[in-house]
Design a protein that fits this description.
Layout lengths: L4 E6 L3 H8 L8 H4 L8 H8 L10 H21 L2 E4 L2 E5 L6 E3 L2 E4 L9 E9 L12 H14 L3 E8 L2 E8 L2 H21 L9 H10 L13 H34 L4 E3 L5 E9 L7 E9 L7
Parallel strand pairs: 6-7
Antiparallel strand pairs: 1-3, 2-5, 3-4, 5-6, 7-8, 9-10, 10-11
């Protein structure tokens, strides 16, 4: 089937938008399925798709991102002199119906040396993750962009971002080798698991922990026999716990030696420039009695004091 998409609904139809979003893999889901998202795991996406979990609760960063989105789009349009149309509608791929996305905007370039036809415009706002952009568009954003190209059939597009107070944008071309060879096979396998209710493995992240709490909120009193592979996991877990116990005891001993060496002073300085502070800490009493204690902190040479 040829590339192309079908418009499903607008994001202003919140209930309908959420329902249809759960019926496919969205562009923000794709990096998680590939293990590249810093925000959520493949298991949390799985739990969301089967209706057991809502991993889309609006954070302060998301609220600010939505509020700043029109300004970023306006800045991009002015700087590139391209025609930009704001998005907001959820669209479904005709070729891969289990792939959906909601474009921030669509752009059109009429310069002879640029691209033909419509292009994706992905908008980002970042404050605390500014460092992720030092080598260009972060990998998870690039994957999100390629997913949108796969859904829409567009051959090009851009990412525009406000990084703190710095505005950046870059043009990106569709990568068919990645889409056909990596993205689509991984998402197809994932969607098969969703349809068959076969959970993906957790990855140790807090997102996976939250998904597990949503998937299995209660126990039923029964006993199950675990697969043989869990014997090896059990042995590995016991080994890691023992190593952690030894490590924590060693760290505690080292900290105590630093505290003893600093004594009644506040700061201990090493010849390599590192510093250890041993300051008195105070906590106000509310429902619990007020306490005070001293905390040991390390500061590397040139590092700001916390």
């Amino acid at each position: 089937m040829a590339d192309g998409f079908t418009i499903v609904c607008g994001s202003d139809e919140r209930a309908k938008w959420l329902q249809h979003r759960r019926s496919g893999i969205g562009s923000s889901d794709a990096p998680a399925v590939l293990g590249l998202s810093p925000f959520k795991s493949a298991l949390s996406v799985y739990a969301e798709k089967i209706g057991n979990f809502d991993d889309e609760e609006a954070t302060e960063a998301m609220k600010w991102g939505r509020a700043l989105e029109p300004l970023i789009i306006k800045a991009f349009a002015e700087e590139t002199t391209r025609d930009v149309v704001r998005g907001g509608t959820l669209v479904r791929s005709n070729r891969w119906p289990w792939m959906v996305c909601t474009l921030d905007a669509t752009q059109y370039s009429f310069a002879e040396h640029e691209f033909d036809g419509a292009g994706v415009l992905e908008v980002k706002w970042s404050n605390w993750r500014v460092g992720d952009w030092t080598e260009g568009v972060p990998k998870h954003v690039w994957v999100q962009f390629q997913h949108q190209c796969a859904v829409t059939g567009y051959k090009w597009g851009s990412v525009a971002a406000l990084l703190g107070s710095r505005f950046v944008h870059t043009d990106i071309e569709r990568d068919d080798a990645f889409i056909d060879g990596v993205l689509v096979p991984a998402l197809r396998e994932f969607w098969t698991r969703v349809e068959g209710r076969i959970p993906v493995s957790p990855d140790g992240s807090e997102s996976s922990a939250a998904a597990l709490r949503a998937l299995y909120p209660e126990d039923n009193g029964l006993t199950v026999t675990l697969p043989g592979e869990f014997i090896e996991l059990d042995m590995l877990r016991e080994t890691l716990l023992l190593e952690r116990k030894v490590r924590d005891a060693r760290i505690a001993e080292i900290d105590q030696r630093f505290k003893a060496a600093i004594g009644t002073a506040t700061v201990g300085v090493l010849s390599n420039g590192a510093q250890y502070t041993y300051r008195l800490q105070k906590r106000s009493g509310y429902e619990v009695a007020p306490t005070q204690f001293r905390a040991l902190r390390r500061r590397a040479k040139g590092q700001a004091d916390a």
